[in-house]
Amino acid sequence: MKEYRRNRYTFGLGTIGRDMVFALMNMYLIFYLTDVLNLETSTLWWATGILVALRIFDAVTDPVMGFLVDNTKTRFGKFKPWIAIGAVASAAMTIALFTDFGLSGAAFVVVFAVTFFLWGVAYSVNDIAFWSLLPNLSLDLKEREKIGAIARICALVGLFAVVALIVPVTDMLADVTGSVSGGFTTFVVIVVGIMLAGQLITLFGVKEPPIVQAESKRTPFREMTKIIFKNDQLLWIVIAMGLFMVGYTTTVTFGIYFFEYVYGDIDMYPIFAVILGISQITSLVLFPLVSKRLKRGRIYLVATVLVVAGYMVFFFAPVDTMLFIGIGGVLIFIGQAGIQLIMLLFLADTVDYGHLKMGKRNDSITFSLQPFIYKLAGALANGIVGAVVILSGMQYIRPGDPMTPGGLLLFRIAMFILPLFCILVGYLIYRAKYRIDEAAHGEIIEKLRERGEIS
Q1: Which domains, and CATH codes, for the chain?
Q2: Please, which contacts does 317-320 make with residues 24 or more away whose CB atoms are closer than 8 Å?
Q3: pLDDT digits (tens, 9 = 90+) for 155-204
Q4: Measuring CA to CA, how many Å separate 187 from each of 87, 161, 242?
Q5: Could you tell me if 380 and 52 are in contact, meaning their C-beta atoms sit under 8 angstroms apart?
Q6: CA 443/CA 454 separation, integer angstroms
Q7: Which residues in 193-206 are b (16+ Cβ under 10 Å) and which e?
Q8: pTM here?
Q9: What's the CA gap between 314 and 317, in Å, rounded?
Q10: What is the DSSP code (8-state) at residue 394?
Q11: Residue 265, Cα to own-chain centre: how many angstroms?
């Protein structure tokens, strides 16, 4: 229906700023701690441990946030109030985390831990409520693909805007503010403003169609784990998605270190990022056309082959030329964009599967597992990166100076070999266990209609 087509864009535009903030937190918070605040080794170990521990704790509690959203009833619906609350609170905590308050030692550790914990809770509430909207905007697979593709394109625009701009813009703002940390804080304030503007577009622009016929019953807290663990298809796709995201997030988090300490020219990092961003966006723009000719399972296979080929080229590429580094990066990120969109659509389909199997539609509990995956992946990636930075001696190397052979080998294994292993295992689990293809999903929707539970 025409009145709901605007959802493709008003929903998608809300992801630009959100993913800018997520990119800052997932990829550059550890860099801010190591290369901007220049924390002492003991403090850095504490900060790295806090990042890992709190992200794991936060990830584990995400289903509780999903439970709260699923049981919310207001005149604005159950999603939008939480989107608004989470956006404002996470905006404030993001600025606080990238502000130098002049603390050190134990005082820094305590303030950092509390602030990061509050950010995690706030972002979770927003993220779960936001993505829970997706399966409620359409039951048609092709329309979901269009909505999902536009949302992922907008998210990538936000992510790669941060990747491309963070070095030149923070350098410029450092000259204006008089310090590198001041430049970072100003950049973060701008990013947070973009996030809040995008969230307003979603809050006032998205209109939910009347999909569910019967009013959903309240979910008792004791049933929350049953909803997750009895949805076998949800569990398998979460495991596959989690392994992929651990590999991908680890590689991209190492990116800025690669160009500063391995390639030896950090100014090439934003240029490389723009090329990769264009590659990913192109992949998503072409996705609806490709999906007309290939089923989702075949798209996942092709994308995985591209990712594997990219890792192999990148691993063996000479570090003194951008040609092969660029080719490897393009292959990885074209495949990665397709895989992330496929995973998002698989997750949406498990909402319908769970509805059929358990007689209740628990959108937010299901989608609480997406931030669970991202946070767990981010926690492990930051832990790996923090440990490699310390153990390889990178924090003591001046930019432009070569790494030791042992440090370089450790760096390459952590950036390329370990992630590739995770990605391949994730794909094999998907192939062995996931069963909701296009035909199976059509049968699920037909049975729900026969029961009178959806329109």
Answers
A1: 2-206+221-449 (1.20.1250.20)
A2: 319/262, 319/263, 319/264
A3: 888 988 898 888 889 999 999 999 999 999 999 999 999 999 999 999 99
A4: 18, 12, 30
A5: yes
A6: 13
A7: ebbbebbebbbeeb
A8: 0.73
A9: 5
A10: G
A11: 27
End-to-end CA distance of the chain: 14
Contact indicator for 202, 60 with CB cutoff of 8 Å: no
Residue 331 is encoded by which pair of tokens? Answer: 């292959």
Burial class of residue 396 in the structure, from the number of CB atoms within 10 Å of its CB (0-12 exposed, 13-18 middle, 19+ buried):
exposed
The percent helix, strand, coil of the chain (3-state, each to 5) is 80, 0, 20
Distances (CA, A) of 182 to 91, 146, 415: 17, 40, 30
Asked if 355 and 219 count as a contact pair (C-beta separation under 8 A), the reply is no
Sign of the torsion angle spanned by Cα atoms 84, 86, 92, 98: negative
For residue range 17-37, list pLDDT tens digits in order.
999 998 898 778 988 998 899
CB within 8 Å of 379: residues ≥ 6 apart: 51, 52, 53, 54, 55, 56, 59
DSSP labels, 19-35: HHHHHIIIIIHHHIIII
